[in-house]
Amino acid sequence: MEALVVRYSLRKGILCATLLGSVACKKTVETTVAPAPSAAASAALAKPLEPGQIGANSSRGAVVAFMDAVKVQDLRGMSAMWGNADGPTANRIKRDELEKRLIVIQCLLAHEKWEFAEDNPRLSTGGRQEFIVSLQRKGAKDLGRTTFTTVAASGARWFVEDISIGDIKESCR
């Protein structure tokens, strides 16, 4: 299993069977993504990522690029920023599994506006950096805060390794 685990799913039981595959859930709730990513966005995910397209030059840049991709439902852009010290997750899991995970993440993090809640990252083990992000939906509805953990891979490229979404007030509808 990849490092990025949508913790909300494990705690609340929402979509964990779909998201994590082999993990048993006590409760599963069906949900839909509205609006769902387009067929073109899904097809773009099938194209392999080029070395210059993966990761970001900085840990903060990885979060910015990931959230920008979430906002426009760019699954390929999200996949380019999602990974660990070994590189992008897209290189390690099947495309259909990658697409399912990214759609759930996109749905949970869908926003009208977001911002860093703190100016500087919190340092973590193994050179990881954590960023607290505040999310708002249309109408200035506060969704809460989430923590993004970033990690550097070879070539000094940074990836979003983990997103702790347990404090998000609403989930997919």
Please describe what this structure looks like.
- It is built from six helices and seven strands; from the N terminus they run αααααββαβββββ.
- It has helices at 7-12, 16-20, 39-45, 59-71, 75-81, 95-109; strands at 83-84, 87-88, 113-116, 122-123, 129-137, 141-153, 157-164.
- β4 and β5 (129-137) form a beta hairpin.
- The chain is globular and about 35 Å long.
- The protein has 173 residues and is an alpha+beta fold.
- Strands 3, 4, 5, 6 and 7 form a five-stranded antiparallel β-sheet that branches. A two-stranded antiparallel sheet has the order 1-2.
- Residues 1-34 have low confidence and may be disordered.
- α4 (59-71) packs antiparallel against α5 (75-81).
Can you give me a brief rundown of this structure?
This protein is an alpha+beta fold and 173 residues long. It has six helices and seven strands. The longest helix has 15 residues, at 95-109.
Keywords:
single chain, 173 residues, alpha+beta, five-stranded antiparallel β-sheet, two-stranded antiparallel sheet, 7 strands, 31% helix, 23% strand, disordered N terminus
What's the alpha carbon Rg, rounded to whole Å?
15 Å
Write down the overall mean pLDDT.
Answer: 77
Largest sheet: 5 strands, antiparallel
Strand composition percent: 15-25%
Low-pLDDT runs of 5+ residues are 1-34
Helix count, per DSSP? 6
